[in-house]
Design goal:
By secondary structure, the chain is an alpha/beta fold. It is about 25% helix and about 25% strand. The chain is built from 13 helices and 28 strands. It has a 7-stranded mixed β-sheet. The protein has a 7-stranded mixed β-sheet with strand order 22-19-20-21-15-18-23, with no helix packed on it. Strands 6-7-8-9 form a 4-stranded antiparallel β-sheet. The chain starts with a strand and ends with a helix. It binds adenosine-5'-triphosphate and magnesium ion. Adenosine-5'-triphosphate binds next to helix 2, strand 10 and helix 9.
């Protein structure tokens, strides 16, 4: 289904006409469970972000999977914040996550939960395990626990505190909770097996002492449960049937099952899948946070960031992201997806929905010598050839126009069909014009003004005598142009694998110094005058653009969402 080249997915068997989610091993498991009546056909999943950063495109894969299978099998999906680590978590992240999941098009109904809501229940369960001799208070420091844990080949050593009586453990645990002991001085550990082959089963820590204000429980607690002692029980409390997570949790599964079994609670089942990796993209919240803190990007929503809010500001649509997630599918093997596929999905969606307009990024004045001086004509332009209902609009035409610098060359190479001396081209929706001269900057030799004559018979873009031109270029009436700023983006990193660096360096060495180009003297047609942040357009021949949130009523700022050149389609054609 997916074709890999050097570990990078370069092809899928799905195209735009075959856009059905493929059946994957997770859906196969669910269908088998439904067939055997394991949960009376009930399917209940959850998306469990830790509120310690903004969501990224990798999370979108998990969101689309969890909410997607629930929807597909008539089940439910919860949104649950996995908020057991008060030192890194913040309300700002909670709000952004809620906004982003909603924007992606998913709904958790009234099932918004927080692992911290279960702190009392988890505490009671810890007490229960202590009473049954399955957990003990350990006075070893974090370092000592690590040192006595053993290795993959050598067993660990039992803690000297392992055989405390349940009474002593209960007393100590209660005093841990009431704040008698300093941070880090004691832990509660599960009593499993220090010689277990799986290191996670070597008396893992269940609770640690940590004085930090929690975003929801405030200072009520000074002990916090670990991820492992929280996740499975949270799933169980919510009666999650299929707990889908990424592969790094695979060797936590025996512990997940151990807690559920020892507590005799609802048996949620953990199933792991491969996380999304994308070329030219970093996907770790910790590193994304570094980029933000160090000012290497303008914020979490910088349009170069792989965050959902960054993609949204860049002009991505939820439909394009969902389509991408459907096409990459779900597997058990780690791989990297070519970012060109994400851009391909985006172009397909934007092509369908974006109104076409004309804008000029690097303006060059074009003067039509034989066009009446103060005349302005309103020409008819098609709003979207992909959408018959999108209708037409008027575009003003005048003697002086802006065209893009790239569309004029004094000494054109072969196959250059745009404007050059003596050459006739079509002005989109307008007239045929022939270049009759060029004025140049005496110092630099750069063209500053191109002179043309027009053929009044070719209004609308066709010659009554049937003569053809090879090139059509876009333009904006200088008399009516709206000056705007345009921001062009390239990948944030110069290498497909941002972590591919020489010894002693890190991903920062691969930051692309040219990832943002700001063009401050651009012109767009007047129909865009009242465009609002988030509005999307295709600038003919230049790409898809959207209005940035930095815009003011006086000055619009556009992001180029993506260019028109589809490298993915090219790769597909070649292979
Ligand atoms: P990161 O490693 O980027 O910091 P995380 O795994 O710490 O992310 P969580 O908030 O714990 O972030 O993730 C919430 C859910 O999203 C988890 O179930 C996790 O497995 C899943 N997830 C995180 N990153 C990816 C990814 N790149 N691809 C698919 N799923 C992911
Ligand atoms: Mg995590």
């Amino acid at each position: 289904m997916l074709i890999y080249e050097k570990g990078v997915i370069t092809k899928t068997n799905m195209d735009s006409t075959n856009n059905i989610p493929p059946t994957d091993f997770i859906r196969a498991i669910i269908e088998e469970d439904n067939r055997t009546g394991k949960h009376e056909g009930r399917v209940h999943t959850r998306f469990p972000p830790e509120p310690n950063g903004y969501l990224h495109i990798g999370h979108a894969k998990s969101i689309c999977l969890n909410f997607g299978v629930a929807r597909q099998y008539g089940g439910l999906c919860n949104l649950r914040f996995d908020d057991t680590n008060p030192s890194k978590e913040e309300e700002e992240y909670v709000e952004s996550i809620i906004e982003d999941v909603r924007w992606l098009g998913f709904d958790w109904g009234d099932r918004l939960f927080y692992a911290s809501d279960y702190f009392d229940q988890l505490y009671d369960w810890a007490v229960e395990l202590i009473k049954r001799g399955k957990a003990y208070v350990c006075d070893l420091s974090a370092d000592e626990i690590r040192e006595t844990r053993g290795t993959l080949t050598a067993p660990g050593a039992n803690s000297p505190f392992r055989d405390r009586s349940p009474e002593e453990n209960l007393d100590l645990f209660e005093r841990m909770r009431s704040g008698e002991f300093p941070d880090g001085s004691r832990t509660l550990r599960a009593k499993i097996d220090m010689a277990a082959a799986n290191l996670n089963m070597r008396d893992p820590v269940m609770y640690r002492i940590l004085r930090a204000t929690h975003h929801r429980t405030g200072d009520r607690w000074c002990i916090y449960p670990t991820y492992d002692f929280t996740h499975g029980q949270s799933d169980s409390l919510e009666r999650i049937t299929h707990s889908l997570c990424t592969l790094e949790f695979e060797n936590h599964r025996p512990l997940y099952d151990w807690y559920i079994r020892e507590l005799g609670i609802f048996p949620s089942r953990q199933i792991e899948f491969a996380r999304l990796n994308l070329t030219y993209t970093l996907m770790s919240k910790r590193r994304l946070l570094e980029l933000v803190r160090e000012g290497r990007v303008a914020g979490w929503d910088d349009p170069r960031m792989p965050t959902i809010c960054g993609l949204r500001r860049r002009g991505y649509t939820p439909e394009a992201i969902r389509d991408f997630c459907a096409r990459i599918g779900i597997s058990k093997v780690d791989s990297t997806v070519d970012i060109a596929l994400l851009e391909h999905c985006l172009r397909e969606d934007l092509n369908r929905r974006s109104p076409r307009v004309m804008g000029v990024l690097r303006p060059l004045k074009l003067v039509i010598d034989n066009y009446p001086e103060n005349q302005i004509e309103e020409l008819d332009a098609v709003n979207n050839p992909e959408d018959a209902d999108a209708g037409m609009r008027k575009v003003p035409f005048s003697r002086e126009l802006w065209i893009d610098r790239d569309d004029f060359l004094e000494d054109p190479p072969k196959k250059y069909f745009r404007l050059s001396p003596g050459r006739e081209v079509r002005l989109r929706y307008g007239y045929f014009v022939t270049c009759v001269g060029v004025e140049k900057d005496p110092a630099t030799g750069e063209p500053v003004e191109v002179h043309c004559t027009y053929d009044p018979e070719t209004r609308g873009g066709n010659a009554p005598d049937g003569r053809k031109v090879k090139g059509t270029i876009h333009w904006v009436s200088a008399a009516r142009a709206v000056p705007v700023e345009v921001r062009l983006y390239d990948h944030l990193f110069t290498k497909p694998d941002p972590g591919d660096v020489p010894e002693g360096q890190d991903y920062r060495a691969n930051l692309n110094p040219a990832s943002l180009e700001r063009l401050t003297e651009c012109y767009v047609e007047p129909s865009l005058k009242d465009a609002a942040p988030g509005d999307r357009f295709q600038f003919e021949r230049l790409g898809y653009f959207c209005v940035d949130s930095d815009s003011s009523p006086e000055r619009l700022v556009f992001n180029r969402t993506v260019s028109l050149v589809d490298t993915w389609a090219k790769i597909q054609k070649k292979s």
